[in-house]
Amino acid sequence: MKKGMKKSLITLLLFIALLIVWNQTEAKVSGPQTIHLRLMETTDLHGNMIGFDYEDRKKTVEFGLSRTASLIKQARNESQNSLLFDNGDILEGNGLDEYAYRSHPLDMANIHPVFKAMNTLLYDAATVGNHEFNYGIDFMEASLSGANFPYVNANIYVEDRNQLDEDDLNYFNPYTILEKEVTDTSGQKHKLNVGVIGFITPIVAEWNKEYFRGNLKVKNIKETAEHFIPIMKSKGADIIVALAHTGLQSDKGLDEKKGNSVHALSKVKGIDAILFGHSHSVFPVKDELQKLPGIDLKTGTINGTAAVQAGYWGNHLGLIDLKIIYQDGEWKVKSSLSSIRPVYRTLNKKSREVIPADPLMEQIMKKDHNDALDYLKNKK
Ligand SMILES: [Zn+2]
């Protein structure tokens, strides 16, 4: 190569290198501040803290929070900012729950077994499911007091026997605003106010008549959301996450048009993400049932709102990855991607891929698990 050519080649390379550096600096300086926030969901655990089938009294790899816990830890490690939520139906459903109700003492020293496990995972918030009411309101209250994280529900009210809405009192805290310290893509720290609101299917009042009648009433999900979202915004919520213990479509017996489904909730302005449960399905999956208008199965949005449903019994972890940017003086969700991760997968006829159980969770549950087995053996 001639000397002059070499020189101009070096100059060209230098120029390109400079251009790259300049571009990167430019992007950092002038681009909007960007936060990646991962929302994680468990739902409908029904007492399944470890991989054990109390019905058949045998171990299983197909469900149990001890395996979901491994997925949670992995998902946390992959992400700079994350929050963990549960969507209810934990206090009734298996032998451990039955033992906890019938023969496990509940006091400050002896919290409900499910919370011994769940508290170790550092949940950020949760909402109640209809099965929380199965053993009565007193048992539910005593049990929930063992949770180290807040419970929210906006549409269960104290029955005051009048038609006035204005004087109605929420039974639970309708919402909470989590002040989350987050790190943006350039390493800068911010305080992001994440509003979390909870809803339950009104069918709960039918299914648990004995406890609801005269004590509690349940209001319409969509209308309740429309009431509270502007209030949460005015109290400083930058983004809003809805925990909805109701299916993609309304329960049988409820009118879909009246707005008690996730599909209806997704149309409420101001909600950025919906984590849902109750119907024991997963979302998003390529499923005929999920071919409803407004659903994008690629990104996992319903009418443009990010959504996820994590199956049941801890058989899946639900994830919503939000890209949030600072624009016009406020944080806005720019895009989202929902996904589900199973605790086991069938690869072919002979083999399957299984997520290992978290040994800490198994250890924590050991005594209550054995006590539950004793209880089940001795019960009439
Ligand atoms: Zn339910």
UniProtKB/TrEMBL annotation:
Superkingdom as given in the UniProt entry: Bacteria
Q: Does the keyword Iron-sulfur apply?
A: no
Signal peptide (from-to): none
Name the Gene Ontology biological process terms.
Answer: nucleotide catabolic process
Please verify whether the record's keywords include Cell wall biogenesis/degradation. no
* Transmembrane segment boundaries: none
Q: PROSITE patterns in the record, alphabetically?
A: 5_NUCLEOTIDASE_1, 5_NUCLEOTIDASE_2
- Database matches in Pfam families: Metallophos (PF00149)
> Which cofactor is recorded for it?
a divalent metal cation
GO CC annotation: what is one? outer membrane-bounded periplasmic space
The protein's location, in the record's own words, is:
Cell envelope
Q: Which UniProt keywords apply?
A: Hydrolase, Multifunctional enzyme, Nucleotide-binding
Q: Which family does it belong to?
A: Belongs to the 5'-nucleotidase family.
Please state what the protein is called. Answer: Calcineurin-like phosphoesterase domain-containing protein
